[in-house]
Amino acid sequence: MKRAEQNFTALRLILPPAPKPLGVYKPCLIDGKYLYVSGHGTVKSDGSLIIGRIGQDMTAEEGKLAARQVGLAILATIKAHVGSLNKVKRVIKVLGMVNCTPDFEKHPFVINGASELFAAVWGEDDGIGVRSAVGMGSLPDNIPVEIEALFELDL
After folding, report:
1. pTM attached to this predicted model
2. For an engineered disulfide with 148, which of 39, 51, 104, 154 has Cβ 3.0 to 4.6 Å away?
Protein backbone atom coordinates (compact mmCIF):
# COMPACT_ATOMS: atom_id res chain seq x y z
CA MET A 1 0.00 0.00 0.00
CA LYS A 2 1.36 3.40 -0.97
CA ARG A 3 1.81 5.70 2.01
CA ALA A 4 3.42 8.78 0.44
CA GLU A 5 0.45 11.04 1.16
CA GLN A 6 0.26 9.82 4.78
CA ASN A 7 4.01 10.28 5.19
CA PHE A 8 3.80 13.81 3.82
CA THR A 9 0.92 14.69 6.16
CA ALA A 10 2.91 13.35 9.11
CA LEU A 11 5.81 15.69 8.23
CA ARG A 12 3.45 18.67 8.77
CA LEU A 13 5.00 20.60 5.91
CA ILE A 14 3.13 23.00 3.65
CA LEU A 15 3.29 22.78 -0.12
CA PRO A 16 3.87 26.01 -2.01
CA PRO A 17 1.70 26.70 -5.05
CA ALA A 18 2.80 24.60 -8.02
CA PRO A 19 5.15 26.90 -9.95
CA LYS A 20 4.06 28.19 -13.35
CA PRO A 21 6.64 28.08 -16.16
CA LEU A 22 8.49 31.36 -16.64
CA GLY A 23 9.87 30.24 -20.01
CA VAL A 24 9.08 27.93 -22.89
CA TYR A 25 8.84 24.54 -21.18
CA LYS A 26 6.45 22.20 -19.39
CA PRO A 27 6.68 21.82 -15.58
CA CYS A 28 6.55 18.06 -16.07
CA LEU A 29 6.00 15.47 -18.74
CA ILE A 30 4.77 11.89 -18.54
CA ASP A 31 6.36 9.38 -20.92
CA GLY A 32 5.01 5.89 -20.37
CA LYS A 33 5.65 5.12 -16.71
CA TYR A 34 8.12 7.98 -16.20
CA LEU A 35 7.44 11.47 -14.89
CA TYR A 36 10.08 13.99 -15.86
CA VAL A 37 10.03 17.14 -13.72
CA SER A 38 11.67 20.30 -15.07
CA GLY A 39 14.08 22.32 -12.99
CA HIS A 40 12.29 23.87 -10.01
CA GLY A 41 13.38 26.78 -7.86
CA THR A 42 12.93 27.90 -4.28
CA VAL A 43 9.22 28.78 -4.33
CA LYS A 44 7.87 29.54 -0.85
CA SER A 45 4.29 29.08 0.33
CA ASP A 46 3.47 32.72 -0.47
CA GLY A 47 4.77 32.29 -4.04
CA SER A 48 7.92 34.34 -3.48
CA LEU A 49 11.44 32.95 -3.97
CA ILE A 50 14.30 32.31 -1.59
CA ILE A 51 17.14 34.38 -3.08
CA GLY A 52 20.88 34.31 -2.54
CA ARG A 53 24.21 32.71 -3.35
CA ILE A 54 25.53 30.01 -1.04
CA GLY A 55 28.92 30.86 0.40
CA GLN A 56 28.20 34.56 -0.02
CA ASP A 57 24.63 35.40 1.09
CA MET A 58 23.72 32.06 2.69
CA THR A 59 25.32 29.30 4.72
CA ALA A 60 25.36 25.65 3.65
CA GLU A 61 22.65 24.95 6.25
CA GLU A 62 20.45 27.71 4.80
CA GLY A 63 21.10 26.25 1.37
CA LYS A 64 19.97 22.83 2.57
CA LEU A 65 16.69 24.37 3.78
CA ALA A 66 16.34 26.08 0.39
CA ALA A 67 16.84 22.70 -1.33
CA ARG A 68 14.09 21.23 0.85
CA GLN A 69 11.84 24.07 -0.30
CA VAL A 70 12.65 23.16 -3.91
CA GLY A 71 11.67 19.58 -3.07
CA LEU A 72 8.34 20.87 -1.77
CA ALA A 73 7.81 22.80 -5.02
CA ILE A 74 8.46 19.57 -6.95
CA LEU A 75 5.92 17.75 -4.77
CA ALA A 76 3.40 20.52 -5.49
CA THR A 77 3.92 20.04 -9.23
CA ILE A 78 3.50 16.27 -8.89
CA LYS A 79 0.22 16.68 -6.99
CA ALA A 80 -1.04 19.29 -9.47
CA HIS A 81 -0.31 17.10 -12.49
CA VAL A 82 -0.88 13.51 -11.35
CA GLY A 83 -3.23 14.10 -8.41
CA SER A 84 -1.45 12.27 -5.61
CA LEU A 85 2.04 11.53 -4.32
CA ASN A 86 0.86 7.92 -4.00
CA LYS A 87 0.96 7.65 -7.80
CA VAL A 88 4.77 7.88 -7.71
CA LYS A 89 6.39 4.47 -7.38
CA ARG A 90 9.92 5.72 -6.80
CA VAL A 91 12.51 8.42 -7.35
CA ILE A 92 14.81 7.54 -10.25
CA LYS A 93 17.17 10.52 -10.56
CA VAL A 94 17.75 13.93 -9.02
CA LEU A 95 19.97 16.65 -10.48
CA GLY A 96 20.68 19.40 -7.98
CA MET A 97 22.31 22.66 -9.02
CA VAL A 98 23.74 24.97 -6.37
CA ASN A 99 24.31 28.69 -6.96
CA CYS A 100 27.51 29.14 -4.99
CA THR A 101 30.87 30.81 -4.73
CA PRO A 102 33.79 29.12 -6.54
CA ASP A 103 35.32 27.90 -3.28
CA PHE A 104 32.11 26.24 -2.00
CA GLU A 105 32.44 22.44 -1.84
CA LYS A 106 29.37 21.11 0.01
CA HIS A 107 27.02 20.69 -2.95
CA PRO A 108 25.86 17.19 -1.86
CA PHE A 109 25.11 18.47 1.66
CA VAL A 110 22.89 21.21 0.22
CA ILE A 111 20.98 18.90 -2.14
CA ASN A 112 20.38 16.50 0.76
CA GLY A 113 17.63 18.94 1.75
CA ALA A 114 15.51 17.67 -1.14
CA SER A 115 16.79 14.09 -1.07
CA GLU A 116 15.97 13.70 2.64
CA LEU A 117 12.47 15.06 1.97
CA PHE A 118 11.88 12.55 -0.83
CA ALA A 119 13.19 9.71 1.39
CA ALA A 120 10.78 10.78 4.14
CA VAL A 121 7.85 10.86 1.71
CA TRP A 122 8.46 7.65 -0.25
CA GLY A 123 10.70 5.75 2.19
CA GLU A 124 14.39 5.01 1.79
CA ASP A 125 13.95 2.24 -0.79
CA ASP A 126 11.73 4.23 -3.15
CA GLY A 127 12.57 7.80 -2.16
CA ILE A 128 16.31 7.68 -2.85
CA GLY A 129 17.46 7.42 -6.45
CA VAL A 130 20.66 8.23 -8.27
CA ARG A 131 21.80 11.82 -7.99
CA SER A 132 24.18 14.53 -9.09
CA ALA A 133 24.88 17.68 -7.06
CA VAL A 134 26.86 20.37 -8.85
CA GLY A 135 27.87 23.98 -8.37
CA MET A 136 26.87 26.75 -10.74
CA GLY A 137 28.17 30.27 -11.23
CA SER A 138 24.59 31.57 -11.23
CA LEU A 139 20.99 30.41 -11.39
CA PRO A 140 17.82 32.19 -12.61
CA ASP A 141 16.69 35.13 -10.45
CA ASN A 142 19.68 34.44 -8.15
CA ILE A 143 17.93 31.47 -6.51
CA PRO A 144 20.33 29.35 -4.43
CA VAL A 145 19.15 25.93 -5.68
CA GLU A 146 17.47 24.46 -8.76
CA ILE A 147 16.52 20.79 -8.97
CA GLU A 148 15.13 18.60 -11.73
CA ALA A 149 14.05 15.01 -11.17
CA LEU A 150 12.82 11.82 -12.80
CA PHE A 151 10.22 9.60 -11.13
CA GLU A 152 8.68 6.24 -11.97
CA LEU A 153 4.90 6.23 -11.78
CA ASP A 154 2.87 3.41 -10.24
CA LEU A 155 0.51 2.63 -13.12
Report:
1. 0.97
2. 39
